[in-house]
Design goal:
- This protein has one domain: Response regulator (Rossmann fold).
- It is globular, with a radius of gyration of 16 Å.
- 34% of the residues are buried.
- The strands form two sheets. The chain has an eight-stranded mixed β-sheet, sandwiched between helices. Strands 1-9 form a two-stranded antiparallel ribbon.
- The protein has 185 residues and is of the alpha/beta class.
Length: 185
């Protein structure tokens, strides 16, 4: 883990707290928009806390199926980098292991359910993210007392060849541990 990651983690937590307070004070429609913006930001903020087995020249976030983010995600990642690589956003109708995705937000659609998309990506080095759903991806967004939080399935991360840092695991509202897990970096 790089020096300064603790500082980044504290800033991230402070930003999430400020956003949570703002979320509580807004009317429902504005709150929904802020909730979506927070989730869009989380998508790329997860990257420094996950280790992938390999990576291409571009760090790719894919939105599979229904896209709740629209331009919010594009604006959130504009000019950002992950592991020194520029971030690109791709929108896909179907999840497929042949598509270059580092993170895949699975929205589900009539063409491919969330379950089928997760099944299609199982075993690929992709951080799958779902939204308060069953089935859940490696990371599953949830609302907790009006705040956007997340659950982590570290066993599913292991099955996809990913390592999630203990710092990110500690921020989750719940963690399904990987089998035989020991202390983490």
């Amino acid at each position: 883990m790089r020096a300064g990651t603790g500082r980044t983690c504290r800033r991230w937590g402070a930003a999430a707290a400020v956003l949570a307070l703002a979320l509580a004070a807004l009317p429902a429609r504005a709150a929904d928009s802020l909730e979506t913006a927070v989730k869009a930001t989380y998508l790329y903020k997860f990257a420094p806390f996950v280790t992938w087995p390999s990576g291409g020249q571009t760090f790719t976030i894919c939105v599979v199926g229904t896209d709740p983010f629209g331009p919010l995600l594009d604006r959130a990642v504009a000019g950002q980098q992950a592991s020194g690589r520029p971030i690109a956003v791709r929108r896909l109708a179907l999840a497929d292991k042949s598509q270059p995705c580092d993170i895949a937000y699975i929205g589900g659609s009539a063409a491919q359910s969330v379950r089928d998309a997760l099944r299609a990506l199982h075993g690929a080095p992709v951080l799958t993210v779902t939204d308060s759903g069953s089935p859940a991806g490696v990371i599953d967004f949830t609302l907790d007392q009006g705040r956007v939080r997340f659950r982590i399935d570290d066993e599913a991360a292991a099955e996809n060849g990913l390592v999630i840092s203990s710092k990110l695991l500690s921020l989750a509202v719940s963690v399904n541990p990987r089998r035989g897990s020991a202390a983490r970096p």
